[in-house]
Amino acid sequence: MAPPKNAERIKAATTATTTSPTSTKHEASSITTTIAPKITNNVAPSQDPDPLDLDPLVPPPLSWGIDEILAAARLNLSRLDPYFAFYILSEPRTPPAVLVDIRPFHQRQEEGEILGALIIERNVLEWRFDPRSATRLDIANRYDLRVIIFCSEGYTSSLAARSLQELGLWNATDIVGGYKAWKAAGLGRIPEHAQ
Question: For the whole model, what pTM was predicted?
Answer without folding.
Answer: 0.71
